[in-house]
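My current task is to audit a protein record that another person submitted. Thanks in advance; the entry in question is below:
***
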Amino acid sequence: MRPSSPSCFALRPQTQSTFLLAKLFASRFRPEPADPHAFDTRPPPREPGPVGVLLVNLGTPDEPTPGAIRRYLAEFLSDRRVIEIPQWLWQIVLRGVVLPRRPAALAPRYREIWMPEGSPLLVWSLAQARSLQQVFDTEGLPVRVEAAMRYGSPAVASAIDSLRGQGCERILTVPMYPQYAAGTTATAVDAVAAVAGALRNQPELRFVKRFYADAGYIGALAARVWAHWDAHGKPEKLLLSFHGLPRRVVELGDPYYRDCMATAELLRQALGADGALVELAFQSRFGRAKWLEPYTEPTLKSWAAAGVRRVDVMCPGFLADCLETLEEIQGQCRASFLAAGGQEFRYIPCLNDDPAWIDALAALVRRQLGGWL
């Protein structure tokens, strides 16, 4: 006699087929917690539960090592919204050229800016979430805040799981990009929608599209500038450096450039007469295609060559300091400006967990939660 086996293949053919079909069907959606009142003919009223707020930033490697950076870049650069060329062609370039070489080159740059607690972007993103939670706790509002990274950890799915586990059936997603771009804001929305698409019992969802003109955001930027000037004096020029995009993306309808221009103008107005010091450029160009201009580093070099000796640079499109602000701006661009003849280069840090910004973010979220609280 053959010994019994736990394998489904030991079942009778009809039972085996039913089991396999049930398993296949169940795998389409993620499991839901059991509802003790699912079949009650007179179920008790549903409790509204707290409201969830999901803050989504771009992402970061888990460690400043080539292996961790490779995993991060593989996910980030495989997003069709980030790289808009045919995937079959891009994957050949990505797997054959970029991933074998780029991580080792980036590792020293990440190590240079790494904090004791971890990646600056993650450290500040978590600090923002904690500070926002403290505001709502102090106000006695039933709000639960989680931070997530579009690429890397903590993942959007795990953050949504955490919110749902706390009883949140209504979730507001705040992509942490004041200026809308398909490669940042829209891909955060895509990620949340993908998680919802795998749920049988979906939460109610809202999204913030942009907030470049939000009075609290502009006011926090202006306060950051004034505090810096009070401590160090005014420069000859204040450069606002935004992350760049391929020019073709804007030609195809992305509103990012327009949002950046509007942010710069609103900050000029907020600074009053000192707004005349403000100029704008775009950083982080990648590849040979033409990107949004003027470019940040060449602009700084040309200023130094023209006799500008003291400049301040801030990055209004980044709400948390990261590789692009700390290493590229504070490191590379500073060195280029000084080598070209400049005498003083000062980087104004991102808003991070500045109390004025946290208050502005809390006000923004409260408005978006209208009818839910």
Remarks:
- The chain has two domains: 51-211+355-368, 215-347.
- The beta strands are 51-60, 143-152, 170-175, 204-207, 237-243, 278-283, 310-314, 344-347.
- The chain is about 45% helix and 15% strand.
